[in-house]
């Protein structure tokens, strides 16, 4: 049984209509600009009530810090809502950072992207005889920006730990060339991202025969 609890934005009974702050009547979410500013210039919103933003506690904390620094510290740094590392802690973890492939195609056009992917087999699975080619890694690259990595996805053991590390590299402008130049730690799951050479468009076989 899978329970998707979700969250409600409790914004309808706190007086926002009195000062003219607009909300999405369907879900109570608050539309804001890229500085978390509502339609009323002196009212800001952060966290899970933002329309179209991720409902994650670390995102809200980061956005709040940056907002305070902009308002009172002379900063101009805005919260990056795209390159947010996140993980689904299912028995086989899924981690991602950046854009999903569908969103990347929508934003950049399929012809401007190169998608590299591979199945992989964790070393510890070979000892227990678990199924091969269950784990998966994928990166989405913008061909017209030096093959910069704009999407990172991994399905496998400890995906959260793997994703957290690569997220920092993505924030630094990680490219496919830099990944290729990075020496992998053998045998780790993360190593697969340093050896990817098969593009999705090629249609080549991505199955692995060993760790």
From TrEMBL:
Cofactor(s) for this UniProt protein: FAD
Gene Ontology terms, MF aspect: flavin adenine dinucleotide binding; glutathione-disulfide reductase (NADPH) activity
GO biological process: cell redox homeostasis; cellular response to oxidative stress; glutathione metabolic process
Keyword Flavoprotein: yes
Gene3D superfamilies given in the database record: 3.30.390.30, FAD/NAD(P)-binding domain (3.50.50.60)
CC annotations in GO: cytosol; mitochondrion
Alphabetized InterPro entries for the sequence: FAD/NAD-bd_sf, FAD/NAD-binding_dom, FAD/NAD-linked_Rdtase_dimer_sf, GSHR/TRXR-like, Pyr_nucl-diS_OxRdtase_dimer
Keyword tags: Disulfide bond, FAD, Flavoprotein, NADP, Oxidoreductase, Redox-active center
Residue ranges of every copy of the FAD/NAD(P)-binding domain listed in the record: 1-64
Record carries keyword Cell membrane: no
Ranges of residues in domain Pyridine nucleotide-disulphide oxidoreductase dimerisation: 84-196
Matching PANTHER family: GLUTATHIONE REDUCTASE, THIOREDOXIN-DISULFIDE REDUCTASE
Family statement: Belongs to the class-I pyridine nucleotide-disulfide oxidoreductase family.
Protein name: TRXR3 reductase
Source organism of the structure: Probosciger aterrimus (Palm cockatoo)
Upper classification of the organism: Eukaryota, Metazoa, Chordata, Craniata, Vertebrata
